[in-house]
Structure formats: C-alpha cells, structure tokens
Amino acid sequence: SSLILVAMVVAIATGVNHEEKGDAGATSGGGQQISTSTKSIQSICQPTDYRQTCEDSLTRAAGNTTDPHQLVQAGFQAAIDALKVAIANSSTISEAEKDPRAKKALENCKIMMNMGIEDL
Fold first, then answer.
1. 94 vs 82: CA distance, rounded Å
2. Distances (CA, A) of 103 to 9, 99, 111
3. What ranges in the chain are assigned the alpha helix state H?
4. What is the C-alpha separation between 38 and 23, in angstroms, rounded?
C-alpha cells in the first residue's frame, strides 16, 4: 500500500511537471487521451509488485482521465474498495469474531479504519 502511495506521489509530481512544460498529450482528442490515460496509469503502476492488478484497478476506477489528481483519488478508492472486500471475505476475521473480546477489538479496528478512510 505504501509503495502505491509513493508511486502515486511521484506520478503526480511528474504529471504536474509535464503540464507546466506544456505537455500537449493530455489535451488532444479522444484516441490520444485514452493512450495518454493508459500511459499515465502504467507510469503509476510500474514500480509496484502487482503491476497488472494495479493497472486493471486504476483503469476500472479512473476511466479515461489523464489528471494525476483524479488518478490518485481513483487509486485510493480502488485500494479502499479492495480492502473492504478482503475484510468481508476473510475467514480469519470471521473466525476471530466468534470470540467476544476479539470481536470488540475488530469493531475498534473497523472504526479506526473508517476514520482513516475519511481522512484520506
């Protein structure tokens, strides 16, 4: 997760740099925008361990955007959604919820997770 965050920050910095230098790729017509969007997503996902999963998630979440800020937001949303699905499908968490103390601890963790998500 932190690697994706670092990659997104680098991508934003790179994207802002290109925009300041007058990069025309992001402002041209339909096919070029899709190509630029794909290249932006590939650039963000390149340093990650699961590059294809990253690219697929961002492509679904971001659509054809080339705006680095929107790509980062889409990345965070994709990570949040994947985390929620993993928690819901976790057999370990389901097993732990059978113990009253563990269940209360998990409830606290979920509250803290939701607060962290809101902060993002």
1. 17
2. 36, 6, 12
3. 2-20, 30-45, 51-62, 68-88, 91-96, 100-119
4. 16
Q: Which amino acid is at 70?
A: Q
Q: Which of 65, 66, 88 is nearest to 16 (CA)?
A: 66
User: Which residues in the chain show pLDDT less than 50?
Assistant: 15-30
CB 64 within 8 A of CB 37: yes
Q: CB-hemisphere CA count at 13 Å for 8?
A: 21
- Reported as a single tens digit per residue, the pLDDT across 46-60 is 888 988 988 888 888
Q: Measuring CA to CA, which residue among 99, 57, 102, 51 is closest to residue 80?
A: 57
**Residue 45: count of CB within 10 angstroms of its CB:** 23
User: Please, are residues 103 and 96 in contact by the beta-carbon 8 Å criterion?
Assistant: yes
Say whether pTM exceeds 0.85: no
Can you state the angle between helices 51-62 and 30-45, rounded to 10 degrees?
Answer: 140
